[in-house]
Amino acid sequence: MPQVKFEAWINENDQNDPGHMTMLDMQTGHHIEFTMGATPNGFSVTVTNVMTNLPYTANSRNLILSQRSVDQNWDSQVSKQRGGMMRFTGVCSYVVDVTDQEYGYLRAQAAIRLAVGEYNFLREAQVARPLASRCLSLLEELAKSRGQRLVTGKAIEALEDFERQNVVTGKQMVDWS
């Protein structure tokens, strides 16, 4: 049975940091990571944020898909900086058994997102911690394919909610703060 590992990268020094999520495809040994491009594409939408009830404007940006080895992903995440400090202070990961059909679906969703080249900025505009909506898309897709819905929030909150609804193995927490 195929397995994937979801990793929630955590910043305990900044309670407003939504964290980040990567997925390790354990069959290929590559981490799949979605991030957004730095420059807006010129299209935006303003909606009411459902968590804060305040207007929020999201700008369209390119979606970047990175595939890295385990070591390359680790080096990339621990070297990220925000405000002159390390972005992440820890990571929590869960291994998930997926069916062959779910595995194919996750790989297809990654390919579709790469081909379209845009993140779902409308979804981004509607959540309290907008950065969480892009990198979580594969976890959200797996939950949706299982008829589940995850909480909206930080990467770690979504991962813990997924754990409550599913059997996960290989739970690991690394804290270097």
Throw out a few tags for this protein.
177 residues; alpha+beta; globular
Q: First CA to last CA: what distance?
A: 35 Å
Walk across the major sheet and give the strand order. 4-3-2-1-7-8
How much beta, percentage-wise?
A: 35-45%
Relative helix content: 25-40%
If you compute it from the alpha carbons, what radius of gyration comes out, rounded to the nearest whole angstrom? 16 Å
Structure characterization notes:
With 177 residues, this protein is of the alpha+beta class. Helices cover 32% and strands 38% of the residues. The protein has six helices and eight strands; from the N terminus they run ββββαβββαααααβ. The strands form two sheets. The protein has a six-stranded antiparallel β-sheet, sandwiched between helices. Strands 5-6 form a two-stranded antiparallel sheet. Helix 2 (100-116) crosses helix 5. The radius of gyration is 16 Å and the shape is globular. The termini are far apart. The model is unreliable at 125-133 (pLDDT under 50).
Topology:
Elements lengths: L2 E8 L9 E6 L4 E19 L6 E15 H9 L2 E2 L2 E2 L3 E8 L2 H17 L4 H6 L5 H4 L1 H9 L9 H11 L3 E7 L2
Antiparallel strand pairs: 1-2, 1-7, 2-3, 3-4, 5-6, 7-8
Helix pairs in contact: 2-5
